[in-house]
Amino acid sequence: MDHSIEYRPSFALLTVSLDAGESIRSEAGAMVSYADGIDIETSAKGGLLGSLKRSVLGGESFFQNTFTATTAGDVSFAPPLPGDVVHQRLEDETLFVQSGSYLASDVELDLDTSFGGAKTFFGSEGLFLLKLEGTGDSFLSSYGAIHEVELDAGERYTVDTGHIVAFDGTTDFSVERVGGLKSTLFSGEGLVCTFTGPGTVWLQSRSMDAFLSWLIPQLPSNSPSQ
């Protein structure tokens, strides 16, 4: 399938061109438009338990949409927040995606929720990561622009957990505090993830948590006036 990504990096719009018989799967609510001759099917992928696990633990929608072309046509998608979209082709590979960054993918790719065990992400980013596995095209979204970092074998790189979009299954990772307890509580950074290569890490230039931390104190109080 061919695709184009326009209006990057602030207001990215993904357009996928499907030939007759081709399909693409997307997160519920991601669709912007589609041409005549495109059929849409909404279902709970992976069965009831799989969808519940992905929804409750992975932060994604319980239902997903599959678009199939009866005749050649385009389908367009956009992320919910102002930001970018990046394409990544998997060739019998594994890609871990942070909750909320999955936009769409080839129906041939397996989509599941992977538990990180002792190495999991703590805090509002969620305890679970989505796992894309197999061969096919995937499309990831972000809040802000996407920055790609290539790591050599043994190379280490530390990222605030709120800025992670995705990373290759070949990378190792550990989640830790910034410095000591004082830094964790008062530096404004919280928890970070240290990746060890080889592999690629995709980051987003803005953090929704940081934005909400700024926004919420600015909102008017609902307490009655004295």
Can you put this structure into words, describing what you see?
- This is TIGR00266 family protein.
- It holds the Pfam family AIM24.
- It is a single chain.
- With 226 residues, this protein is mainly beta.
- The chain has a single domain, classed as Mitochondrial biogenesis AIM24 (Double-stranded beta-helix, 4-Layer Sandwich).
- The chain is 12% helix and 48% strand.
- The protein is built from 3 helices and 17 strands.
- The protein has helices at residues 47-58, 181-186, 208-215, and strands at 2-6, 13-18, 23-27, 31-34, 38-43, 64-69, 73-77, 85-97, 102-106, 110-115, 128-141, 146-151, 156-160, 164-168, 172-177, 191-196, 199-204.
- The strands form 3 sheets. Strands 3, 5, 6, 8, 9, 10, 11, 12, 14 and 17 form a 10-stranded antiparallel β-sheet that branches. A 4-stranded antiparallel β-sheet has the order 1-2-7-4, with no helix packed on it. A 3-stranded antiparallel β-sheet has the order 13-16-15.
- Strand 1 (2-6) and strand 2 (13-18) form a beta hairpin.
- The longest helix has 12 residues, at 47-58.
- The radius of gyration is 19 Å and the shape is globular.
- The termini are far apart.
- Mean pLDDT is 82; it is low at 46-62, 115-127 and 181-188.
